[in-house]
Each structure stands twice: as C-alpha cells, then as structure tokens.
C-alpha cells in the first residue's frame, strides 16, 4: 500500500530519531488483510536502514511485534493496520522500543517499573476512534518500561469475528489476561492506578502551600494555570485527565485563528503550553472535598490534603444520562455516548440517537453513513439543532426522526436489543428493535461533590460573579461547571483567565 506523500515525509523525520535497530516480527498469511499489513511494513522498513522485517507465527494473523533487534520481544504488538488515529501510536512505539524515553514523569516511570505481576493487555480499537490512542499509547509505554507487561492493539475492522465473539460494543475496550479490564478513554495515570492502586497520600506530604491551586485540566483549568503562573505565583494543577471534555470532540472549527483542529490535538498543544511554566501538575487525582480553615484545603480521594491561598475550580462537565431502565445495564454493550468512536461497531445495524440538538443531529448524520437505519428520538415537539444540520438530515433516506417522544426503557439480554418510547401526544407506547443507542442530550457539571458553602444553581452549576469568584471567599470557578450562559471552548478559556486574574487580585487584597 502507498502511504500519503505528506505522511511519509513526516515519518521520515521521526525515523531519523531511531536510537537503535528495530525489527518488525510479522505473522502473515495469504489473505488480503495480511497482504495489506505486509505492504505497510515493507514500505516503512524501506525508509530506514535501522528497520527490517521478518516473518514468524504469532497468536493472530495478520499481526506484528515491534522489537529491538537481537533483543527479547518488547511486548508491543499490533494486530491489523495501525492507521488513522493509531498511526501516531505506531510511530511512538517505534521510537520508544528503539530507546527513546517516554514523555512521562520520572515518578510515574518508577511506579510502572515496580509492578510485579505478569500482565498481558489486548485493546480493541476502531481507526476512527479519537479516544483509543490514549489507551494504546499508555499500555505500549507500560510494555516498553516493564518486561512483565505486554500489549496488543487489535484493529476491529480486521478482527470483526473476534469483536463479535467477545461482545465488544464500545472502543477502546481493554482485556487483561483474557478478562475485560476497562472500556473508554483512560489516561496512563488512571491505568496505573487501576493496576496497582492509588498513589499513596504520603507522596503529597512535601507539597508547599499553593498561591493558586487549579482543580481541573480542561481549557478553563489550563488557561487559569497559565495566567496564574505568569504572575510569578506558586501554581498547582490537580487533574484527573488532562484535556477534559474537549478530548471527546473531533472537529473544532470555531477556535479563532485556527480554522480546524481536533480535541486531542488542541489539548496536547495546550498541555505543552502549561508545561512551559513552573506549574505543579498532579495527574490522575480526584478531589472529594473543599474546606476553609486558616487556609483553603482540598482533600483528595486518596486522603491527601493540599493547602492553598486561593482555588480555581475548573471541573468541566460530563455527558448527561437519560436515566431510564437499561441505560446503566447496557453501557458499552450497545449504549454509548461517542458516535465517532463506536459508530463503526454498528455498521449495517439499526441504531437510535437520543437528542435532537446539534450534537444529536451531527451524530445521526455521521451514523447514517454506517448504520442500516438511524432513529432520532427528540423529547420536544421540534428539533433544537441548527437549521443547516436539520436540512442535511432531511436528505438522508435511512434516518427516521421521532419528535415529541419520551424514551422509557432500553431493553435486551446480554446487549441492547431494542428501545421502548412513549408518544407524548397520546401516551401510546412503541418499541424499535435495534442494536445501539447513542445518548446525546447535553452535559451536566461535575459539581456533585462540592460542599454547600459553594452555591450552585438547581442544575448544579457554580454561581460566579464577574471576577469568577464563588460564594466561598478565595474560591473561584471557570468553564462549563459554572452558570455561564454559553458552553464553548473559547469561552471556557476566557473564563479561566478571568478566574486566575480574580484569584491574583484576591491574593493582593488579602
């Protein structure tokens, strides 16, 4: 297969960085998929004298290992073609197997190398999934750093029988030693915590008092951290996963000055910007309480307590649930929230999209190109999406729009088999047989853990003034977790800057 000229040009630059010889150990047959993988590997091997290809029978065909030549297997393998969003995973695996140090903190490297169990991970992906590379790259790093750990990325398109046999209905889905381990995007910090337990609270004992402690790692939190650090004050950043909700966004076309970007790409750039300043970024950590004594205190779920003179809450939001029977039971077994990631798993199947706003109609348009039929269920008498999206939807012959209906139940046995809804006009009940339900009804703020001293609206949004300050002195808030009128990336960034400047002004006056 011929790689795009631009891709080959970029790849050539990375291959110059190889620190040692790398060997592709490939299991190939006479089938068409094997031929594609062979052509892919040969084309890349021909680009550098440090790359070579040998054939050997492996557990899956077609698949290949990425090994340092004349050494023990690295533990990193790919079953199928690592193209699309996974091409970056492939390039990073090449560099790291060849000896390049992964770009993670030394403390995390130590935690990974101290894992004593024998762990074999398998990650099922689709090449259109923008969440999958985070998991694939993280597990590849674990394999490179610890000889007890191995990982195989499995491209669902080439291994559909395996996908069906294991009932994989969402990506990324990870199996550990043959049993399902996780589903959905996870950071390397979260994976390590799931494997070896939470980071010990004692590791936070030596933290000094922060002038500003930002809680949250999305656009608002990153903006707040940058603005605070630029004031020359001690800044900390407590994040569960860097990037927040933006990591779920594929196409971004309204970032002023950037006609088009994608969520993971944007937040990778934002993270590098934050790291250009002396910000103490504490990843994989969740806060569970805030209290005010002589100083403000944030208690983490692992029991550690961080002290700060001021706090910026940039907690973001998560997908809103429809809260009907079957939603939790069939989560990742037909119920999903990401059409870009999981859509290919429902090719030629019937699916439903819950929600008639912009996100719901965009999802229906995308899914119509894959699914046998798409049903859109909207609670209100009319769709809420922009007219241009409604016009595009109306042109699709395999989409049925049901308005003024209420989802009552998602039904099935081991996986989704249908959806039951009520027609609100006459209260009649109906069932549609289908395989997947995509929930797209907006977001809910991540504020349910906050104390009563921080006032929120009846929707859980933090109430802030024009400086971003909350009802608790010294605590500020920004982004989608607040009562801002509009939830947009650029607005979150602006409100993060406002909150940081408000916190700085508070410190000067107090």
From TrEMBL:
Pfam families noted in UniProt = Pyr_redox_2, Thioredoxin_3
Q: Which residues form the FAD/NAD(P)-binding domain?
A: 210-495
The answer to whether UniProt assigns keyword Aminoacyl-tRNA synthetase to this entry is: no
- One biological process GO term for this chain? response to reactive oxygen species
Q: What does the entry comment about cofactor binding?
A: Binds 1 FAD per subunit.
Cite the binding residues for FAD.
Answer: 211-226, 470-480
Amino-acid positions noted as binding NAD(+) in the UniProt annotation, renumbered to this chain? 350-364
How is this protein organized at the quaternary level? Homodimer.
The name this protein carries in UniProt is Alkyl hydroperoxide reductase, F subunit
What organism, scientifically named, is this protein from? Enterococcus columbae DSM 7374 = ATCC 51263
